[in-house]
Design brief:
By secondary structure, the chain is α+β, with helices and mostly antiparallel strands. Helix content is 24%, strand content 24%. The two termini are 34 Å apart. Bound molecules: zinc ion. The site of zinc ion has 7 residues, from loops.
C-alpha cells in the first residue's frame, strides 16, 4: 500500500502534469470509486494547487476539492493526448479541455476520489503529516503525550501523525533501536528524539528514491520506486541484521507483519 513517500512522489508528478489544467469531464466507470461525484460541478474548474496530507492527495480546484486516497492498488496515469481505449481496471477518467487525460486505475477497488466543498470532513481525523515543516521535536513530543498505545500501533493509526504505514514504521523503529511493543508513555526524551529524527530520515530517503515498490505500486509513468533496495528490516526476515548480524525476526504485532532485530530492539519488561 502506498505510504507517504509513494503518495508524495505521485503528488510531485501530478504537479508536473496536471497543475493548471482545466477539467472538461470526469467520468466514473466504477461508481463506488467516486464519492459524491458531481460532473456538472467539476466541469470547467481548473486545478489550482496540489497538496498532500498523510496518504491523501488534495487537488484544490477553483471552487471545490478532489481528495484522492490510493489505498491498496490505486494508480494515477497521465496521458498527453486523447485515449481511445482505457486500460483494464481504470475506474475514473478525467478529461481536460486541452485533450490530455488523467486515469485512475485501481485493481482492488479500495481507492477513492472524494469530491467535497470543504476538506475538513475527510481530513479532520488525520493527524499532522510526518514531514510537515511545523512538526519539530517539541510538537512531536506533544503529540506523543498522554498516549496509552504501543509505538507501532500509534504510528500506524494516522490519527496523531499521518503518512507512515507498515514499512516505514518498521524501518524507523529499527533505526531508533525501539521494540515495536514499547509503550509511547515509556519513551525517554532521548528515545523520542531518536525516533523523530529517524522517521524524518527514513521518509526523506524514500522520497528521494521515488518511494518503494513491493508489489503493485507504480508512479504516474508506470515506474517502480527504488527505495525497497534500502530496507534494513522490512521484508528481510531471516537475513542478518545490518548492525549486529542477528537474524531479523518477523512477528504479527498490532495486526501487521512486523520486522525487527531481537538484539538491537530489546523488549522492555514492565
Ligand atoms: Zn541487530
Amino acid at each position: 500500500m502506498p505510504e507517504l513517500p509513494e503518495v508524495e512522489t505521485v503528488a510531485q508528478e501530478l504537479r508536473d502534469n496536471v497543475l493548471g489544467r482545466r477539467i472538461k469531464s470526469v467520468t466514473a466507470i466504477w461508481n463506488r470509486s467516486f464519492d459524491n461525484q458531481c460532473e456538472t460541478a467539476l466541469a470547467g474548474q481548473s486545478i489550482e494547487r496540489i497538496d498532500r496530507k498523510g496518504k491523501y492527495l488534495i487537488l484544490n480546484l477553483e471552487r471545490t476539492f478532489l481528495i484522492i486516497h490510493l489505498r491498496m492498488t490505486g494508480q494515477l496515469l497521465f496521458y498527453p493526448g486523447k485515449v481511445d481505449a482505457a486500460e483494464d481496471h481504470v475506474r475514473i477518467i478525467m478529461q481536460f479541455v486541452d485533450q490530455t487525460e488523467l486515469h485512475f486505475k485501481d485493481m482492488r477497488k479500495f481507492g477513492r476520489f472524494y469530491h467535497v466543498s470543504d476538506i475538513q470532513g475527510i481530513l479532520n481525523n488525520v493527524g499532522i503529516d510526518a514531514l510537515d515543516r511545523q512538526l519539530g521535536l517539541p510538537m512531536f513530543r506533544k503529540v506523543l503525550r498522554n498516549s496509552k498505545m504501543n509505538i507501532k500501533a500509534f504510528l500506524l493509526s494516522q490519527k496523531y501523525i499521518s503518512g507512515l504505514g507498515n514499512i516505514y514504521v518498521d524501518e524507523s523503529l529499527f533505526l531508533s533501536r525501539l521494540h515495536p511493543s514499547t509503550m509511547v508513555s515509556d519513551l525517554t526524551p532521548s528515545e523520542s528524539k531518536r525516533l523523530f529524527e529517524n522517521i524524518v530520515f527514513v521518509l526523506k530517503q524514500a522520497v528521494r528514491n521515488m518511494g518503494s515498490t513491493i508489489s503493485d505500486y507504480r508512479d504516474m509513468y508506470g515506474n517502480r520506486g527504488n527505495n525497497q533496495k534500502f530496507f534494513r528490516v522490512y521484508g528481510r526476515a531471516g537475513d542478518p541484521c545490518p548492525v549486529c548480524g542477528t537474524q531479523i525476526k518477523k512477528i504479527k504485532f498490532a495486526g501487521r507483519g512486523t520486522h525487527f532485530c531481537p538484539s538491537c530492539q530489546i523488549k522492555q519488561e514492565t
